[in-house]
Design brief:
By secondary structure, the protein is mainly alpha-helical. Strands 1-2-3 form a three-stranded parallel beta sheet, sandwiched between helices. The chain contains six helices and three strands; from the N terminus they run αβααβαβαα.
Length: about 130
């Protein structure tokens, strides 16, 4: 939020894609606080840049061993209903048969590998260009 002006608003984008929140989960912030901060970002963009289309990506899945798995699911449920954005659910593109982050798409069970990002490129572009 503190960098929103120079990194987004000053650029006057027609579209903004947000991938946000996993670091806050990792830092132990309550889910409610995370959602509030994301809502504040969205509201600021809506007020300051009326014509910017905002796309909010879900938080990506993690490996089950990760302490973040249950928090990611809760946070995604809350993000899906935020007003003022198009919510883009990419979760199933990255999961294996067990519903966990596919080992082929991660470097450490949390962060995506280049292959993981490549899997997401097409659905993100399709969503934004529709």
């Amino acid at each position: 939020l503190e960098h929103l002006k120079e990194q987004v608003l000053d650029l006057e984008p027609s579209k903004l894609v947000l991938l946000i929140g996993i670091n806050d989960i990792g830092r132990g912030y309550p889910i409610r606080d995370i959602i509030t901060r994301i809502s504040d970002i969205i509201m600021t963009v809506r007020q300051e840049s009326l014509f910017t289309e905002v796309y909010l990506l879900n938080v990506f899945p993690v490996s089950e061993e990760s302490q973040y798995a249950s928090k990611v699911k809760i946070r995604n449920q809350q993000l899906a209903v935020l007003p003022g954005v198009t919510y883009v659910d990419l979760f199933d593109y990255l999961t294996d048969d067990m519903g966990q982050l596919n080992d082929n798409y991660t470097t450490d069970g949390l962060h995506l590998s280049p292959q993981g990002y490549q899997v997401l490129a097409e659905p993100i572009i399709k969503e934004i260009l529709e």
